[in-house]
Amino acid sequence: MVRCILASDMHSKSYKLQVTSCKLVICCLQCCLFPILLLTVFCLLPSVSHAELIDKVLAFVDDTAITLSEFEEVYSNTAKIKPDIKREEVLNTMLNRILLLREAKKLRIESSTEDGIIKEYIELKIKTFIKVTEYDIREFYDKSRSEFGQADLDDVRDKIEDYLVENQVNRRLKMHIEELRSKAYMKVIGR
Amino acid sequence: MRPLQYYKKTAQKLYLIKLLFFFIAVFSLLLCIPSIEASETPSIQKIEIRGLYSMDGEEFLNLLDIKLGGILNPSNVSRGIKTAFLKGIFEDISVETDDIDKTHIRINVIEKDVIKKNYIIGNDYLSGRELRDNFLLKEDQIMRYDLLNSVVSELKDFLYKKGFHHADARIEVSRTGSPYRVNLILTVEEGEPAVIEKIRIHGPEEDVRQLMTVKEGSINDQFRLDKEVENIRAYYKKNNYLSPSVMLYPASESELEISVNPGRKIDIRFEGNIAIDSKTLLKEMSFFDAEDFRDDLIEESISRIISLYHTKGYPFVQVAPVTSVNEDTISIYFFIFEGDEIIVKTVRFTEVTINRRNLKEMMSIREGYVYNPDLIDSNKETLLEFYNALGYLNANIDDVKVEINNSRAEISITVSEGEQVKIEDIEIKGSLLVEREKIEKVIMVKKGDPYNEVDIADARYRIIDLYGDRGLIDAKVDIKQEITGRGVKVIFEIDEGLITLFGKTVISGNTRTKHEAIKRELLYEEGTPFNYTLLTKTRQKLYKLGLFTDLDIESPEKTGKVRDIHIRVKEGNAGMIELGVGYGDYEHYRGSFDVSYRNLFGMNRQPSFRAELSSIERRYILSYLEPWFLKSPVPFRALLIREERTEKSIETREIRYKLKRHTASAGIEKKLSNEFKGEVFYEFSLVKTEDVKPDVILTKEDTGTLLISSIKPGIVYDTRDNPFDPRRGVLAGISVKAASGFLLSETDFIKAIFTGSIYKAISRRFVVAVSLKSGIAQGFRDTRELPLVERFFLGGRTTVRGYEQDTLGPKGANGTPTGGNTFILANLELRTSLGRNFGFVTFLDGGNVWAKIDEIDIMEMKYTAGIGIRYDTPVGPLRIDYGHKLDRKTGESSGEVHFSIGHAF
After folding, report:
1. Chain A residues with a Cβ under 8 Å from any Cβ in chain B
2. Given B7, B24, B85, which is nearest A6 (Cβ)?
3. What is the pLDDT of residues A38-59, one digit of tens each?
4. What would the pLDDT profile of B345-366 be if each residue is shown by its tens digit?
5. Whether B443 contacts B463, CB under 8 Å
6. Domain B501-571 homologous superfamily, CATH
7. Contacts of B86 in chain A (CB under 8 A)
């Protein structure tokens, strides 16, 4: 660009040159100062105020907190297995686990994993009190006979028993959790 | 027109400018590089906490694991928040940064509201205390907004049951001036109570009306009526009615129907019982607990009667029941044939190689005692366990024969012992982190010992404990045995696991006690090996502070290498008022008043005031204890004492002298070990002695005002099991008092007291206690005689019993004791427990006081012997002693009676 100007009429261009020298400076500024400014801005960036949340309490059960990051981790892991799961469902499960683990601790139940502790707690506190009688099995078999086709009661007895036990476990566990929830101070703070 | 040179120069200038800018750009870039590098690990430059009120910022940041100069690790923040949340006071904690480098941290806190005060208004009938007790939201607790409706509902239910059927209650929450603190205003409008106008009773009306305290005209109080029902039931049960039924039917607000059916009465009688009375046998009946009369309950009752007779030595007892049942009454007669009382004459063992005496000691069936056939099976088990402990793993009790002749039982036990198995070798595998010698030391079984599984299992637990004390709490120990010839090789296979360290400690529940006052008592530090023993000791130490009624230490799950600790405390009342009255032979009636507070400024500082008053003494003590002097675990104590005392003769009540003393004292105490305690005190006393009997005066300081300034070091060795009523242990000590003009004292002396007491239980009922005590004192510079108040006196209830208080030793011209510069005192007691808190003591005391050290003459010791009665109380036994003078002089009484509390020594 400079070479091009120098090649033109010197007289008529003397003023132009002065103007051009200013342009040159601007051009230099464009060439060199711009990166400097960019760098300066880059260097100063950290001091520009912009609040970023590192972590916070999302919900609590008495003195046990669930943090946002903890929830997000559990949610993303759960969503990989069950993509349509809602965030509320995951949070509710986390709160229920806290309640059950806390009760299990009172009974000094030990296991290498939290799942193991909860399983043992349910076994002890819920399953122990469930009794499925021969009458229950037969009643269920009679009611749902069409679903069993030609199978005799003896063939499906164990399956029916397992099903009825599981049903009752779920029902009682739900009631038990409701009871625990009513006694605890729980709150979902939200984001 | 400009020359070409000019343009060239201009072009050169431009080139230079370009070059300059280029260098500036490069330079700037270089300058930026370090800051880019630094942005990878920026340290925290600024921390701002918003909204924190109930705890110290430093403690809060420590729990969050965020500190100035540290690096913010976002993945740790979640853990920090969860840890801090365990304090139980937070509603929300959020951590933010203001900059990309995360060097400026802002922590926003919202605490849960706490109820500061509950105000109850509008109540006319029920007391504020009763309402407060039945109101679920308590003062100093977290405000539960979620419970507001249910709390009001429950209170209304309570009011309804109390008879206020139209009562209303409202709660208003008002903020106090302090953050997160609210007051609750509970408005109770009881309305008019429901009054019982008519009570209809179905059943034995006359009896029931007499039993009832609720009458027509009383408030329809359901709680009170429930109690009435219980009382009526209890009355009929007490009168042998098997299953009384009492039903309450509220017919309307003002009418009550009570239906009472006492049921059948049971009449139980015993015939033929001589060894056990009927009242005792009645306690064995099963009908009353079961509230029924059935055949199986008759059988159970018979078994219990027979068992009771067996314990009394009647193995042939027989019981026959005869019953008759009608509509109202059940009669049961137990005809008892007791048989003879059988005493065990001999216990013999056949075919045994080990010491028969040892075998007999293991048994509860003993020669000379009554024979109980029910003990045979348990004795067989005990003997087998004993054999197993000695390595006889195949031992068997083949037969137990009991021959009874002339009311004497001869028991013969046949044992087949089998081979004794011994430990041939012990091997320890897998010990890398704990020294092998240490493990061998805790195993406590060695080669050649009899093989006993119980001992080996105990050894395993001791190894686990040893590892646990070093942070290796996940260590596992398996035991394997290898049979080698006649012995067993025991192998302890150790899986040491990974070390666990103490993490953060969260302390919650301390509303009045400061965090620092608890933290300084912890026996572990963050980052040191985890140790359950230290946690147990910490728990004991915290309890000893006397600040907490409940204390729970738990360690949540391990995170990485560390395990956090959560200490939950429940604070008790730190203030205390005590009143005491007593009687002593010397001062007669005496009383004391104590007021103390254990938690000044939340730092366990303890101010107290005590007043002691009696006919001869008035003493006021103001004291202050700082448990951590200059931030070290050395207790500092300061005392201000004002004392007025009149020394009198017990017999004549004649005044020997009067004393007024003002003392200021301060010093430190230090527990040097579990047994040793040292202390150094400075004492400044202004003593005014007046009305001194002339013959008591030995120096000019004995009367008038005297300033004594002294240093008092001392050391005590104490291994007693119970300081109020020791059964074993030693108490020994030396205490010195040095007063000098250098300390601005008007008198110069040094005196020392040596004490030594030994307590030993010689059986369950007998304790021997021996004590030797002596003191020496010497004046120096201008002091020839010690002032009266510093001289030693002996005689009285804690020294030489049988002599009046302070009457031994040198005497003045008129026979008044003057005290002396040296003394020796020896006491010997045999303490016998008679049961039911009573005790009996025989004692021998000896001692005397001499004017100077070089005048000590053992032959001049005065001896007394005596007896005493004790009655145990929580602060030591009440006692009455009579001491008899063994070398009584003409004109002296034969002895003295002493009343006091606490042992003589």
Report:
1. 2, 6, 10-11, 14, 17, 21, 24-25, 28-29, 31-33, 35-36, 39-40, 42-43, 45-57, 60, 62-65, 67, 69-70, 185-187, 189
2. B7
3. 444 444 444 444 578 999 999 9
4. 999 998 888 899 999 999 999 9
5. yes
6. membrane protein fhac (3.10.20.310)
7. 63-64
